[in-house]
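Blinded run. Sample ID left blank on purpose so nobody reads anything into the name before looking at the predicted structure. Input follows.
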Amino acid sequence: MRYAVVIEKAGTNYSAYVPDLPGCIATGSTVAETETLIREAIELHLSGMREDGTPIPPPSSQVEYVEVAA
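Blinded prediction complete.
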């Protein structure tokens, strides 16, 4: 599966979340570290959902960039 991930600058670090998996978050000191940690968080989140018998939502969020004049 391929889930959309949002990574944002958060003061002195970075934070990430997955719109299709509420509560699935990670923080890191760099973008690369945050990407690694959110990947691990997604795997753990999905594993917990399977153990709990909770249906796993299919990826549905889309990410697009829109250019605007500055």
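Unblinding after everyone has recorded impressions. The longest strand covers residues 6-10.
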